[in-house]
Amino acid sequence: MRFPRSREDLAALGYLAGWKVVGKLPERPVLWAAKKAADRFSADGRGPAQLRRNLARVTGLAPEDVPDALVKASMRSYLRYWVEAFRLPAIAGPELAQRIEGMIRGRDLLEESAAAGDGIILLVTHSGNWDMAGMWAARRFGGFTTVAERLRPEELYDAFVEFRESLGFEILPLTGGEPPMAGLRAKLESGGVIALVGERDFGGRGAEVDFFGEKTVMPIGAAQLARDTGAALHVAGLWFDGDEWGLKVHPRIPAEGREIADIVQDSAALMESDIAAHPADWHMLQPLWTADKEERRRRKAREAGES
């Protein structure tokens, strides 16, 4: 990697060092250090402000009334994800996959969809450890395909791709390559499995939904693929369960002949129930709801006018 010249370069250097170092260290001291770092970053639960605003929607409280303990637990959960991600290439294997399989609720629903042979779409949120679940899915179904945001700098994106390919993922870039929908469609039409993150719209062409009582926009790709290909669309909830992991597969969402917006709203309702059940394990530190995005745009416009 070139000499770091920006915050992006420094962040990339940190992630790359994490993969090289954390996987070689004992698990318990690393998790202890991650908890301490999370507590420091969250100021013992007083921040970050956007995480607090997001959790306010989930809990139905005013931001200032969200318990510091919940914000603190959420940051600890987020840092735990990164520790496990850095360690996963070293610990992935049949034994870990078998442990995860024993924790999956609703696995029979996936098996039924797999037996039908029409392809499977797994729709998840930024919760728990989806790489761990993906490792299991790749082993159970002989690989699966997903889409990755093209991170900057390029070295960081390449590292994420290499990491996930080592677990059996096929990665399609969201930008900077062929549009991913064609590749996803081909995978499903061959009876394969794809996994997509469902609650945050990156492309700006999503459908407006009601989510925890407020408006936001969610991506339509999973709904469109399910309707057009006949693939089975399943929302899957992810969380941490003590030292283990939780994964719940919801029943197939009907898609044939339906409006895309209605399919997305049904998906949103299931994702909402999963997040509400395990709010500390939802790792959403960015503005998600329309009101917050508009406020951020207004703030940036004011700052630009003052400069």
Automatic annotation (TrEMBL):
Keywords: Acyltransferase, Cell inner membrane, Cell membrane, Membrane, Transferase
Keyword check for S-adenosyl-L-methionine: no
Biological processes per GO annotation: glycolipid biosynthetic process
Short name of one Pfam family: Lip_A_acyltrans
Top-level lineage group: Bacteria
Compartment list: Cell inner membrane
Record-linked InterPro entries: LipA_acyltrans
GO molecular function, one term: acyltransferase activity
Major localisation: membrane
CDD domains documented for this protein: LPLAT_LABLAT-like (cd07984)
A GO CC term assigned to this protein in UniProt: plasma membrane
Keyword Cell inner membrane listed: yes
Alphabetical list of NCBIfam families matching this protein: PRK07920.1
PANTHER family given in the database record: LIPID A BIOSYNTHESIS LAUROYL ACYLTRANSFERASE, PHOSPHATIDYLINOSITOL MANNOSIDE ACYLTRANSFERASE
Protein name: Phosphatidylinositol mannoside acyltransferase
